[in-house]
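Q: Here's a chain of 284 amino acids. Please give me its 3D structure as tokens.
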Amino acid sequence: MLKKWLREPLVHFLLIGGLLFLLYGLKNDGMSDVPDRIVITRASIDHLSDLWERKRQRPPTDEEMQVLIEAQIREEVLYREALAMGLDRKDSVMRRRLAQKMAFITSDLVAQAEPGEEQLAAYLVAHADRFSQPGHISFEQIYLNADRRGGQAQDDARRMLALLNTPDSPDDAAVMGDRFMLGQSFENVTLQQVAQLFGKGFAEELFVLPVDGWQGPISSGYGLHLVRIHGKSSPAPLQLEAIRDRVRDAWREEQRQAINESFYQGLRQRYEIVVEGRTPGTSR
């Protein structure tokens, strides 16, 4: 019973957290309970905003500015804790590297945790969309160049669709549309592949259409498309036996992120955070 208990990953994480905070406590024995003070100055905020604007050619929104400030606070907290633990001794790397060291201090320990079969099976069920055989679709399309046809594109598409779904429709439907550089027919392609060619919106709309004659029009970045689906399959879940390593690696990464975040939040509480010049509704 004791051996089984000691093999539980949750127990490993609790021990890891306890050891880390014990190490911190020994390193800072006798220090005041009053937290250190972190001040994010107005100049720092302006600098962050200017860097963002130069890179993206627009000022950050309030939400984006808050993310930048939180990242700065996180870096400062982890940097100070790294210094407190002596990670900078005989090491000339900059403070960001020290913060990274602090952020990933638990990574190697977490990597040793071995999830049980029940945990892996439960993780696979909870993240089935990440571990499934993708659905496939086979279809053909007729392209209407909206730039060339202008305001008539939608009317042309409706007239063409009505003709295609009558007994008098031409044998070669491709001659009805405009020239399209990607071709007309697509066999056994996934949603992701369709999205790469036509865009996400087109792909998602295509995959919900029935296998039933010509349909549309569907819009893409190129223009309008009439489509006829010849066949499609739904995503199918994969068995744990076939993807055990992928599931285990994903589980470990999630646990690593969770314990690092918990560890950081615990450290962050030791500091009084002051962000100068921040008022609701402003991004500067």
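Q: Can you summarize the key feature?
A: The mean pLDDT is 80.
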